[in-house]
Each structure stands twice: as structure tokens, then as C-alpha cells.
Amino acid sequence: MTGTLVDFAKLAPKNYLLHKELKKMKWTAGTAGTWTQPETGSWTGICIRVIDVGTHEKQFKGKIKMVRMSQIVWEIPDQLDSENNPLTISKSYTASLAEKANLRKDLEAWRGRPFTPDELGGFEVSNIIGKPCLLNLVTVQGQKGERVVVAGISPLPKGMPAPPKTTYHSRFVYSLDEHDPKVWNQLSERMQDWINRSEERQSTPKAIDPAGVASNMTDDEIPF
Questions:
Q1: Which residue in 217, 211, 214, 209 sits closest to 188, CA to CA?
Q2: Rounded CA separation 38/54 (Å)
Q3: Helix (H, G, I), strand (E, B), or coil: what is residue 74?
Q4: CA atoms within 13 A on the CB side of 13
Q5: Which one-letter DSSP state was computed for residue 61?
Q6: What separation in angstroms does the CA of 155 have from each of 42, 133, 134, 185, 215?
Q7: Which H helix or E strand runs over 147?
Q8: Structure pTM?
Q9: Distance CA 220, CA 55 (A)
Q10: Which residues lie below 8 Å from residue 145, measured CB to CB, with a gap of 6+?
Q11: Torsion angle, CA of 30/34/39/43, rounded to 10 degrees?
Q12: Do residues 79 and 92 touch, judged by C-beta distance below 8 A?
């Protein structure tokens, strides 16, 4: 195995237990305002956000299912926009750590080894915030044209300089079950609207006002 390992589980506070939240979540991307697509290739990324998007309809093998979704967002320090601010990219997941789930596959590729049963049972969403990785970005054809997506995640190769410990964009975890107005107000209006269309929000008397402020967007070595 190549790559630097860091123990995310030992570095992060125990705030959001993913094994509970993943039974209800799915993951996707969104940044406020005009988003500049990053260049393809291998780039260092820093995880800055995990967003609980709620339960939405999803078509799978011709059938409609209700699945909990969430989103992971990374900052790419070596790619800058027209104002010299780091670009971001994100990826959506069904919130599941089942053996064949894409989320689990990506997390295990990122950390450089499979989860043990005990690690799976107590994995926390907040563990990945601020942690670096190597992102493989490729272009795919979407419904609205070509777009750049995260095709693979791996640990930083040995010898690669570590990225800055600070990020331009704010870092946070947003949970529908533990709504935090301060975090909510950092989400883009588009993201707030998406969350407000979730089964959880629609089942409440009133969805939360989407008037937020757009954001600027060895074992001891194992990342999480």
C-alpha cells in the first residue's frame, strides 16, 4: 500500500455518529453562486464539509426508492478561481456503510485499508473534516453537458507535501437531526432549497427559511 496513513478516529471529537446518521442520509454537492469546475487529473483535496441532504426519491433499476442522502465537499488548494480562491468539488452518496456501498468503498480507499467491524460501528462523520486525500477528477457527460466528478480517492502518496492545515472555505458538518442555524446559514440557497424538499422537511409544519448567507466556499497514521 502506498500513501500516508493518519488516524482520523483519534483526531476528531465524537459529535456525529455516522453509523446512526448513515441509516438515514445520502451525499451530493453544491456551492453558492457561480461554481468553476476544476481541471481533471490528480489533485490534493481537503475535506471541508459533510452535509445531510435528507431523504429523497431515487431511481434504481427502474424502481423508485426513498433514500437518505448526504454530500462530501473538498477544497482543492492548488486550483484557484478568477479571484485566486481555492476551488471546491463534491460527491453525493447514499448514506450507507454496507459492504458494497460507494461511500464505504471511497472511505476505505481514502484511509488506505478496510474498516474493522468495531470501526464501522463507531465511525463518525466529523472524523473526515480537515483531512487530506488525493482526488482523481475526470470528465463525464451529464444531462446538462460535461462535468468534472470525483472518480477516485486515495491517501496522499509518500513524499507528497502536506496541504495547508487551514482552508479558505469554512468547515462544518450539517445534520438534519441536529439542526444548527449557524451552520444552516452557511449553506447556499440552492442547497437549502434541496434540503427543504426532503421527506424530513416536508413532513414538518414549515420548512426552514432558505435565507442563509452563501458560504465562501501505522494505526496512528490512519486518516479516519
A1: 214
A2: 27
A3: strand
A4: 3
A5: T
A6: 12, 5, 6, 32, 27
A7: strand 145-154
A8: 0.78
A9: 35
A10: none
A11: -50
A12: no
Give per-residue burial for 124-146: e unless 16+ CB within 10 Å, then b: bbbbbbbbbbbbebeeeeeeeee
Amino acid letter, 99? E
Q: Which cell numbers in the block locate residue 101?
A: 456501498
Write out the chain's pLDDT in tens, 224 residues: 444 444 444 433 333 344 344 333 333 333 344 678 999 999 999 999 999 999 999 888 889 999 999 999 999 999 999 999 999 999 999 988 999 999 999 999 999 999 999 998 888 889 999 999 999 999 999 888 899 999 999 999 999 998 988 999 999 999 999 999 999 999 999 999 999 999 999 987 556 665 544 444 444 455 56
- Residue 52: phi and psi, rounded to 5, are -80, 115
